[in-house]
Amino acid sequence: MTATPPVFPHPLADRNGSPAALLLDLARLPAGAAPVTVLEELAGGSMSCYYRAGADEALQQSLEQAGWKPLPADKAQRVDDALPKELPPAIQWIEGDWFLATPPKPVGTQAASRALALRLVQLVSADADTHEIEALLRQDPTLSYHLLRLVNSLGMGTGRRVTSFSQAILILGRSQLRRWLNLMLFSSREGDQRSAMLLAHVSVRARLMELLSKAIGEDKHHQEQAFMVGMFSLLGTLFGMPLEEVLKPLTISDAVQRALLSHEGELGQLLCVVESAERAEYDSLGDCLAALQLDGATFNRLVADAYLWMQGVSAGKAGNVHG
Questions:
Q1: C-alpha span between 28 and 8 (Å, rounded)
Q2: Which residue of 1, 71, 115, 145 has the fewest C-beta atoms within 10 A of its own C-beta?
Q3: DSSP for 199-222?
Q4: Contact (Cβ atoms closer than 8 angstroms) between residue 76 and residue 55
Q5: C-beta neighbour count of 322 within 10 angstroms
Q6: Does the pTM of the predicted model rise above 0.70?
Q7: Among 237, 319, 318, 314, which Cα is nearest to 19's?
Q8: Residue range 236-259: average pLDDT?
Q9: CA-based Rg of the chain, rounded to a whole angstrom?
């Protein structure tokens, strides 16, 4: 029996720059049949699923049976820099890493908003007093709105709407609140076209790292650290600053810092796994998985879980925050 190779789809943005579909590029996949059951699970999610044709016709047929559709070449445009202000009328989907490009230097209210966001990261990482965090949130109504909207979507069975930050803490607990505040940093940056796709990207990265930690038998604390590494690994991209500079004022463990800055330790290994998958470097990905004693089939199940979780986050209906 042939071992199942790992696969990794990528999100496509709609014309507004919001995540709306997934793309599996067959030409970049390793040899071997893709796991149809996992792909069927993704096709049943809220996003359309497309594939770009490759040499393996049997794989294409199995994908179509799983609910995936071929991507029309004239409907998609690749963008790796800033999102264009004008797109050809026929274009429906935008692919590429445009949302990872360095943002323009902030001015006025954008600069103030970014400074508040950085301060919030500092307070949350230091496990600051609730009142300090709440006072800062009051200065950023957009962030507050998104947080309360997400908490209200969780369906925790309280029977009443969450209307205050203190209620959110009571329902979520500090560790989960820290998770959601960090997620919200990516979702609500005023005037930043990258926000929706950045949130999708960091959600998949953080959730997949958490799931990988669980799969190799680590405890809940390690899983939370893995999620944090995934989140913090893109703070430099979010703020348009060197990651080392963003991390300096933060209260984080040595293990997390070493993983982020030099990919050291087990957390660094997990980050290497996810980054290799994102870059479609399948030889490196296979080596990383082998070092963790994980097979391709397990990895693919975790990828599907991470993408479905991301779809819930993007829709503001994330369900169980613990997954």
A1: 10
A2: 1
A3: HHHHHHHHHHHHHHHHHTT--HHH
A4: no
A5: 11
A6: yes
A7: 314
A8: 88
A9: 20
What is the C-alpha separation between 177 and 130, in angstroms, rounded?
11
Question: Residues with Cβ < 8 Å from 231, sequence gap 6 or more?
Answer: 179, 182, 183, 202, 205, 206
48 three-class SS: strand
Would you list the domain boundaries of the chain? 10-100, 104-191
Q: How far apart are CA 166 and CA 270, in angstroms?
A: 34
CA-based nearest residue to 322, from 234, 233, 218, 207: 207
Give dist(CA 189, CA 191) in Å, integer: 6
Distance CA 141, CA 109 (A): 13
22 bridge partner residues:
11, 49
Q: pLDDT-derived band of residue 121, with 50, 70 and 90 as boundaries?
A: confident
Q: What are phi and psi of 78, to 5 degrees?
A: -90, 135
Q: How would you class 137 by CB atoms within 10 Å of its CB: exposed for 0-12, middle for 13-18, buried for 19 or more?
A: buried
Q: Going by C-beta distance under 8 Å and a sequence separation of 6 or more, which residues neighbour residue 199? A: 183, 186, 187, 313, 314
* 185-190, Cβ contacts within 8 angstroms, sequence gap of 24 or more: 185/117, 185/120, 185/121, 185/143, 185/235, 185/238, 186/234, 186/238, 187/146, 188/140, 188/142, 188/143, 188/145, 188/146, 189/113, 189/114, 189/117, 189/238, 190/109, 190/110, 190/113, 190/142
**What does the block give as tokens for 49?**
């699923």
Whether the per-residue pLDDT at 113 is higher than 60: the answer is: yes
Residue 77 is encoded by which pair of tokens? 């445009």
Question: Measured between alpha carbons, how far is 112 from 9 in angstroms, rounded to an integer?
Answer: 36
Which has more pLDDT, 285 or 319?
A: 285
Find out whether 226 and 255 touch, Cβ atoms under 8 Å: no
Q: Which residues contact 176 (CB under 8 A, 6 or more apart)?
A: 321, 322
Q: What are phi and psi of 179, to 5 degrees?
A: -60, -50
Q: For position 244, what pLDDT does the model report?
A: 93
- Axis crossing angle, helix 141-152 with helix 174-187, rounded to the nearest 10: 120
Read off the amino acid at residue 273.
V
